[in-house]
């Protein structure tokens, strides 16, 4: 089993969140630009898949990552957001939701890393 550098992974996610927030801000800034098409970045899961890190079930009591209620298999994308007559595909509501998702993900990432840092400090004190 290869070691996983959690701090490096968290830094990667923070960089990805920063890029996504910049793209959302660019979309909002161009909300009235005729013909502007809303942009988004590839999901962080694609970045995570490139690292070779994968979830594994190491205990029989662990939940399976691909089955059960709330799994990715059961979620569906809702219809596309409204396209206005100017050809602009930016919806402020959609962009605000994305911005909120980024803020929540950043807060969760920061909380996990603070906890991990406290665990490391506690273990080093003996």
What is the topological layout?
Elements: H1 6-29, H2 44-51, H3 92-125
Helix pairs in contact: 1-3
Principal-axis shape: elongated
What is the ordering of alpha helices and beta strands? HHH
Look at the structure and give the mean pLDDT: 79
Q: How much is the radius of gyration in Å?
A: 19 Å
Major sheet: none
Strand content: under 5%
Number of strands: 0
What structural class do you assign from the helix and strand content? mainly alpha
Count the DSSP helices: 3
State the end-to-end CA separation: 26 Å
Which percent bin holds the helix content?
40-55%
Provide the low-confidence segments as ranges. Answer: 67-79
Describe the structure.
This protein has 126 residues and is mainly alpha-helical. The protein has a domain of 84 residues. It is 52% helix and 0% strand. α1 runs antiparallel to α3. The chain is elongated and about 65 Å long. The protein starts with 5 loop residues before the first helix and ends with a helix.
């Amino acid at each position: 089993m290869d070691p996983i550098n959690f701090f490096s992974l968290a830094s990667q996610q923070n960089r990805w969140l920063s890029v996504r927030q910049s793209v959302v801000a660019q979309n909002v800034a161009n909300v009235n630009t005729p013909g502007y098409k809303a942009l988004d970045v590839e999901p962080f899961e694609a970045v995570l898949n490139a690292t070779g890190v994968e979830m594994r079930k190491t205990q029989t009591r662990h939940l399976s990552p691909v089955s059960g209620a709330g799994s990715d298999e059961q979620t569906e994308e809702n219809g596309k957001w409204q396209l206005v007559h100017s050809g602009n595909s930016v919806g402020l509501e959609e962009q605000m939701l994305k911005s909120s998702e980024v803020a929540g993900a950043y807060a969760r990432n920061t909380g996990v890393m603070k906890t991990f840092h406290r665990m490391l400090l506690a273990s080093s004190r003996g």
